[in-house]
Amino acid sequence: MALVSEFLGQLTLGFGGGREPRFPTVVPAVNFDPEKDASWIDTAIKTKGVDEDLIIDILTKRNYSQRREIAFEYEKKAKKDMITALKGVLSGSLENVILGLMKNRVQYDAFELRASMKGLGTDEESLIEMVCSRSNEELVEIKKVYKELFKKDLEKDVAGDTSGDFCRLLLSLVEAKRDDPSNIVDYERIDNDARALYEAGVKRKGTDVATWIAIFSERSVPHLQKVFERYNSYSPYDIKESIRKEVKGDLEKSFLTLGN
Ligand SMILES: [Ca+2]
Asked: Which domain of life is it from (predicted)?
């Protein structure tokens, strides 16, 4: 039976190799044919002793929605659920990770995060997507699963792969310090935060990024939405325009994702 380390090796292969230097698990596979993949999976399952390598090869080189499409085609063709069929023939850690790729969003996110930082370079787009669009509760779960799967701290990997304000923002988010939503609307705090965002950005020369990071990463989502509304009574530009004016690159993309 294939070892989990071999499986993880498959996930990394695409990064070190020449043809797919970046995020092979995120970018959809080219010439993707779900019917063909489904029939390969069917063949692998039916092979005596199970062709684990083939299963790994297919499922790790497709992105999440492609894997779902393969499962759909498989069910059409084999008249049974692909996850159940895989469960029946796989075992141990390999079963866990393969099934994780198929259906558990948290495990999937942990894998994508790992893939976005492994090997040469960093896939910032995926990193931003994963860290800036997940809720606090999701990030707490992702960190836990990340540690279980890779025996590494997500914080340390993020810190090792990014730098400067971008790194500080991601770490602040990964620390999951965001307030829980409250039933009490604190208008004074909303106003203070809106003014602070304006004074730290559009109103001054340069940007006090630390203040932006603190507000964007520590306030609850409903509170932030009200802050962004209130922001318009201070700033001539709305929050998105302000982000575009004040910061650039990965930091800009991150704040824009958070400002959504
Ligand atoms: Ca400014």
From this structure: Eukaryota
